[in-house]
Amino acid sequence: MMISAPDTPHGAAYVHFWQLFAGRPLNLARLREAFASMGELAVQEEPNTPWPTTIIAGNGERIPFTVESLLAYFARDSGSARRSAVSDSTIQELLPRWTNATIKEIAGWQGAGFQLRLAKRIRLASKSTHTQDGSLGVSCTWQLLQEQQLVCSSSDTDLHIAESLPALQGKKLLDSQLSSGGKLSLNLQAGFYLAIQPDNLGLYSDYFLDFGWDDQSPRSYNFFRGAFVASKQDDGEQDTLDNS
């Protein structure tokens, strides 16, 4: 998402608002606070301009500039809504692929979102081996515990999360479980336990699962609006919004 704004206090508040909107998971309380502060500055700087105003989406649609209208627009416009549905049983059958896989890399996203990249050595019938790759990307609410003690969660500061998640580097995934509502839990070495709780906001996938490839076909899925859907490989949907 590309955002432009004038070099004023209101412009800075406008950029900050969109930075929060792009964060994963979305913190609605902080977002509404930022919108209220932005509105106060807008009225101070341009008292003769009606507030809230409207913005223009990349498709030319004019949207009332309110938190509720933006949530509705992005939920409706999400590409995941147009993808093929996948049953929970399909995902449950694939989860054992990750058993004994090692977390090779942890990549942070804006906000509290992150991605775990997994790898596992597989022995073939020919007695040779190959590496089976996979990944888990989390954009919703989550908690990381160790020996039943909370280590960090999606509600913590970015700094605390960045300092805590590297503890998972090199750890093996012992097993993973899927329960009702798309709740996903991972049991890892050293007593670590990662619990993922979907938010079901519909703005983007709560999380995605990449199990690698089967017969030249990708095994990659998003949990979106309370159900799994098949992923696209070019999952880089963007939109542009202009203030007017």
Structure, explained:
The protein is of the alpha+beta class and 244 residues long. Among the domains are: 9-78, no CATH class; 144-200, no CATH class. It is built from five helices and 15 strands. The strands form two sheets. A twelve-stranded antiparallel sheet has the order 3-14-13-12-6-5-4-9-10-11-7-8. Strands 2-1-15 form a three-stranded antiparallel sheet, with helices on one face. A hairpin with a 2-residue loop joins strand 13 (217-224) and strand 14. The longest helix is centred in the N-terminal third of the chain and has 18 residues, at 28-45. It is elongated. The two termini are 17 Å apart. The model is unreliable at 233-241 (pLDDT under 50).
The largest sheet has its strands arranged as: 3-14-13-12-6-5-4-9-10-11-7-8
Given as residue ranges, the uncertain stretches (5+ residues, pLDDT < 50) are 233-241
Beta fraction of the residues? Answer: 35-45%
Mean pLDDT: 86
Instruction: Spell the H/E element sequence.
Output: HHEEHEHEEEEEHEEEEEEE
> What's the main sheet like?
12 strands, antiparallel
Structural class: alpha+beta
- Helix proportion range: 10-25%
- How far apart are the first and last residues' alpha carbons, in Å? 17 Å
| Principal-axis shape | elongated
From the structure provided, what is the oligomeric state, counting identical versus distinct chains?
single chain
Count the DSSP helices.
Answer: 5
Global Rg: 21 Å
Number of strands: 15
